[in-house]
Amino acid sequence: MIVLNGRFLTQGLTGVQRYAREITRALDGLVAAGEAPPIRLLAPPGAEGLEAYPFLAPRIIGSRSGQLWEQLDLPRALQGDFLLNLGNTAPILAGSNQAVVIHDAGVFDTPESYSWKFRGWYRTLQRILALRGARILTVSEFSARRIAENLSVQPKKLGVTLEGGEHILREPADSDILDHNGLARHGYALVVGTGAAHKNLAALRHAIGALGERGLVLAVAGAKDAGVFRQEGGAELDQHIRPLGRVSDAELRALYESALCLVFPSRYEGFGLPPVEAMWCGCPVVASRIGAVAEVCGEAALWFDAARPESLGEAIGQIADDAGFRSSLAEAGRHRTASFSWEAAARRLLGFLPR
Predict the structure, then answer these.
(1) Can you give the residue ranges of the Glycosyl transferase family domain (predicted)?
(2) Are residues 72 and 123 in the same domain?
(3) What is the DSSP pairing of strand 217-221 with strand 241-245?
(4) Is 142 helix (H, G, I), strand (E, B) or coil?
(5) Fewest Cβ atoms closer than 10 Å to its Cβ: which of 28, 116, 212, 344?
């Protein structure tokens, strides 16, 4: 029997939790079809959404929450079963009888992005898990190389599951968000998540400039206001920015489907989910060729040089001025999505687990 760590059902929805929820959904479907071994889902008190996984026999156990539940209550409930952890952490007491998906090596490679307490805990825990023989999985070949180096694990011992993106098509597009924010079809480029904006503000300034010259705007999903951009360009950039705040999946689908392109300027990613979501929606991707993003997008993205921020503005101009090129890039993205579905990722993951 395989036990699935359901701690993610008590956490907010970020990229890691999205992965956990979608993989669990896909595993539930595979168990229902008789194409996966029996799996039971154990979660801490306060977990929500267990009813979405009926074929995993979901159950709440223990009395603690958070890390204490994961480190103490969960291993006591295993009864010798193999444990699958989907969100970077796992109980030390489960030893080698478990697998843990570590999404990237960010706490080692980009320590400035985390508090000292957070990165200290993650570094210590992940090193102990590796030393105790836990099977380490991840979501890209890039992450596998970085994790192997930082945890002193042989790369061939790591498994790569990849991710999916078709969840973005699950709900009908909610186009009201376009009307409410004055966004016309192909009249804006889209940035998803403020984290990417913070990582490469200089490049985004050039993108805003290229858009403004053409009467277009930059729509930022996840940003509460435009203040972050003022650090680089001043308040005069406001007229070319539409901060949208948090958006639903239905709203995000509408944004992807009507955008001129997705701008993804991040300098470090363990996978890069927004580009995959965009490609599923037929939205062209402009990104910097770094880490896992190059691996995920292949030749289905228009690349700019992160060391030359003005090249992002040039790329935006190329897409805005050449409708035929934009269409061909969107079509390349649609073909690329054949490599990225949650069912395929779940099947790959099962291949690394005991049967």
Answers:
(1) 188-335
(2) yes
(3) parallel
(4) helix
(5) 116
